[in-house]
Amino acid sequence: MTTIALDKEWIETAQLFGDAKNIVKEALRAYAIQQCQQRLDEARAKVATYKRKYNYDYETFKHAVQVDESFLTTIESQNPLWEQDAMEWEYWQEEQQAWRDQLETIMRR
Amino acid sequence: MARSTRDHYAALTAQVAATLNTISFQRFEYNSQRALWEIHGTWGTYNVRLKEIYSTKGRMYSFYVIYANNVVVGFDNYPDRQALYAKHQEAFTSHLDELIPHKHSTGKETLELTETITVETFFDYLRKEIPQTQKEPL
Predict the structure, then answer these.
(1) Distance (Å, rounded) from C-alpha B2 to C-alpha B31?
(2) Which value does ipTM take for this structure?
(3) Could you tell me if B75 and B103 are in contact, meaning their C-beta atoms sit under 8 angstroms apart?
(4) Confidence of residue B137 (pLDDT cuts 50, 70, 90)
(5) Rounded CA gap, B3 and B30, in Å?
(6) In B, what residues contact A, Cβ < 8 A?
């Protein structure tokens, strides 16, 4: 257990709504859920942008550029800098999964 | 890790700003697990696009020189089929999770395997192989 000092006026504000300790705990939980949801939404939107651009989900796209020579040739001809998209697509995939996991963990508490 | 990552990319951004002629776009996003860094600028008459992703899987990079929307030269380590096959031949499907540093020639006509490239070594290559005074790709 870690102790965090709060200004007296915030304790008094929390007490307006009930037990200060519970109110602070609930407020922190609500804040964490909101922040996770915001990051999850951002990651989802980025992933969706790439999915629309390439017409595949990331796993399918990655596997195709790794094993299908004709698919890779087509992608190269359409967008010679596709690697920059693919790297970032993977980044947002990971972000999406990480924030989804984090949100689930918080919701279970 | 977040602070050291932030400091690392701040230093890298400063280095890029001091090397390229102009910076037209830059962004940096990071948290305790991942970082995304991207910067665009000009080198003489060329456009340069640098992007790095840092995650638990390692460091992915893509450093490209563009002229009139065509690739002049590009370094990246994304494991596409051509790079995987160049390194592992018929066994390439057993290495799909491996990052493969490689270089694309002009127009991405050919690919050759390389050592891992950093922004510093990329700039060394630029200074040596693509002088700013060069008006068009060789």
Answers:
(1) 6
(2) 0.91
(3) yes
(4) low
(5) 10
(6) 33-34, 36, 38, 49, 51, 53, 55-57, 60-62, 64, 66, 70-71, 74, 76, 78-82, 84, 93, 96, 108
